Amino acid sequence: MNGKAAKSGSVNHPAGSKSSLPHLEGMGRRERRAAETRLRLFRCALELFTERGFSNVTVEDITEAADVGKGTFFNYFDSKEHVLGVMAEIQIGKIREAVAQAETAAQSVRLVLRRLCQRLSEEPGRSPDMARTLISSFLASDRVRIHVDQHMATGRRGLARIIEIGQRSGEVDPALNCDHLALLFQQSALGTILVWSLHREPHLKTAMENTFHLFWRAIARPGAGKQS
Amino acid sequence: MNGKAAKSGSVNHPAGSKSSLPHLEGMGRRERRAAETRLRLFRCALELFTERGFSNVTVEDITEAADVGKGTFFNYFDSKEHVLGVMAEIQIGKIREAVAQAETAAQSVRLVLRRLCQRLSEEPGRSPDMARTLISSFLASDRVRIHVDQHMATGRRGLARIIEIGQRSGEVDPALNCDHLALLFQQSALGTILVWSLHREPHLKTAMENTFHLFWRAIARPGAGKQS
Fold first, then answer.
1. Which of B136, B148, B184 faces A214 most closely, judged by CB atoms?
2. Per-residue model confidence as pLDDT tens for chain B (228 residues)
3. CATH class of the B84-219 domain in this structure
4. What residues of chain B lie within 8 A of the CB of A149, using their CB?
5. From the CB of residue B164, how many other CB atoms can be counted at a distance below 10 Å?
6. Per-domain residue ranges of chain B
7. What are the residues facing B220 on neighbouring strands?
8. Any idea what DSSP says for residue B172?
């Protein structure tokens, strides 16, 4: 297959939906096709994991469902576990977009963070079973754990940057440490997804909206931006 | 064995450490012994799950480690999955204690919640691997999920009660919905444990303390109780 295809260990080719990856449009035809195949493998894998459980799915099952040769899989991913990294990359893509929006200062940081919460709940919100599969796969082995942890650190850097911009603009309390807040944001968002995947109501979108409002109440500069 | 032993489907005999279950002292000798055996089975099971992974541990492995007959296990638990409910019961025991403290009004609700956060992190904080095992076991099957979800609903009722007391005493913003806040508290606490189990630093106690401070900043009545 395409030798240029990025393995999931690299974040050079984060493959998500086109809408979450605007730089996909800047790619050449070959690169774009590779990113699309990678995304197809990811989607087929996720569907199978949800259906049968992570440990009951083989690489062959995935390549059959995606209608590609088995060798193709290994052009894109080191292992079955690495497929899950794509979800992290999709989420990181959204955080990057939010950073760019905050940097242009066209919108308030409050609105940027609120929209980000909504966007981060899109993929996991498709089904509680899929969300459970994802989280338990993150926990399944040290290889995946380390991989996911690295992606989360990248995500935290972006979140800290957004919060820092909010502090400069006077929206966020400048007394707070933006790295700590970035970690707290991630904990809240992941905890929301986890509890929703167990409890299944309200809709993840609603749950995430409530999570955002609580977070914002905690970080807004006193007297500024507590409006709903 | 003891026919009175509670199956984990019931919450009549929540078996945790003595300190978290003061009503253990009110039990008869027989009941206390049963609760102790149940706790021993839980602790042995958890150690084995962490060592070998949940799915690689049999009921026989657990009863051997706990030095009891295999039949004994089923006096206490319907299945291997149900053993995990004990952790939920331990945590619910702590929430009940916190409710009682808040009701006596001897301490501020802020202090009650802060201490509760610390106590809730004690068991999962023993090892990131154990925390990962617990969370992924919660997600492993629908049987466990429903079981855990019921326990969490019980926990939320207690948390809502504490927050309601805080609203009456003037510490917590009365405009907020205490049931929503209870859910948000659970999400934050579980998210903190989840991210810590992946990231492994800072110490869970520190992470949970930060989570408490953020939560309190969000819920404190404006002008009241924002002191660290």
1. B184
2. 333 344 433 333 333 344 444 455 667 888 888 889 998 999 899 888 878 877 788 999 999 999 999 899 999 998 887 887 788 888 999 999 999 999 998 899 999 999 999 999 998 888 888 888 888 878 877 777 888 888 899 999 999 999 999 999 999 999 999 999 999 999 999 999 999 998 877 799 999 999 999 999 999 998 764 454
3. mainly alpha
4. 198-199
5. 18
6. 18-82, 84-219
7. B172
8. B
Complex-level ipTM: 0.80
Q: Scanning the structure block, which residue is given the tokens 């958890």?
A: B46
Shortest CA distance to A228 belongs to which of B77, B132, B217, B175?
A: B175
The burial class, CB within 10 Å (0-12 / 13-18 / 19+), for B144 is buried
Place of tokens 């602790």: B43
Q: How many residues does chain B have?
A: 228
From CA A120, how far away is CA B146, in angstroms rounded? 26
Same fold, B18-82 and B84-219: yes
Which residues 188-207 of B are in CB contact (within 8 Å) with A?
188-192, 194-195, 197-199, 207
CATH of the structural domain B18-82, one choice from 3.40.640.10, 1.10.357.10, 3.30.2130.30, 3.40.50.970: 1.10.357.10
CB A39 within 8 A of CB A86: yes
The reported pTM is 0.81
First to last CA, chain A: 51
Q: How far apart are CA A78 and CA A76, in angstroms?
A: 7
Contacts of B195 in chain A (CB under 8 A): 152, 183, 186-187, 190
d(CA B158, CA B177): 14
Of residues A191, A197, A210, nearest to B191 (C-beta):
A191
Task: Write down the residue that tokens 């999962």 correspond to.
Answer: B124
Distance in angstroms (rounded) separating the CA atoms of residues B181 and A25: 42
Instruction: Give the fold, CATH level 3, of A18-80.
Output: Arc Repressor Mutant, subunit A (1.10.10)
Cβ–Cβ of B135/A135 closer than 8 Å? Answer: yes
A220 forms bridges with which residues in the sheet?
A172
Strand, coil or helix: B220: strand
